[in-house]
Amino acid sequence: MEEIRGRHELKYHINYFDYLSIKSKIGHIMEVDRNGNGKGDYEIISLYFDDIYNSAYREKISGTNNRTKYRIRIYNFSDSVIKLEKKTRNGDLTHKVSRIIYRDEYEEIMKGRASFLLEERPYEFIDFYEGIKTRTLKPKVLVRYNREAYCLRAANLRITFDRNLSTGNNNLDIFDRNGSFTCSGSDLMILEIKYDGFFPSHIKNIVQSIGRFRSSASKYVIGRKYNYLY
């Protein structure tokens, strides 16, 4: 069996001036994400799941090396692309498995039914299915933000700026554009760098020039602080 290779994922909290500085430099050497609106910008809405013990939340804040979280993600409130994602971390490496689901399948999951996940092999979402079936795994929080993304395809490098982060106030309908959301801080911006084994030095120097320290910057944890007891 082919070994699954993980990706490195670096995160930083940055301010607006950091953003302008980095963007002005990478804009000349990296490609704007084709999935954006021409400027690489789009809106992400993620619905995160956790068990009755809030294991994913607790493992994240305690820094557990080996952990897994599940989410459903859409873009710009459209149901044209709905992704069910499983993200695992092993030490410094992350690995993400993604599966496109249809709107009716999303509705089934929200009703506590996910048997359609057993129709394909390999059963990459078997743990998610079992958690939904036993009702120990449930939707916990919506997180919504704007992303601006840049790519360097030759190195499989991706740099993103996430801003306008907000969380649903116990609203779990991922398609409810008018649902109640709480802003987590208008000045909060998260810089993410994702790459395989090679991080080009000229881009690394640009990022390190801001003099910021790495942060876990978990959007799930940020979202849960507003409704942890839910």
From TrEMBL:
Residues 7-225 form the VTC domain. Transmembrane segments: none annotated. InterPro entries: VTC_domain, VTC_sf. Signal peptide: none annotated. Pfam families: VTC (PF09359). CDD domains: PolyPPase_VTC_like (cd07750). It comes from the Bacteria. GO terms for biological process: polyphosphate biosynthetic process. This is VTC domain-containing protein. It comes from Mesotoga infera.
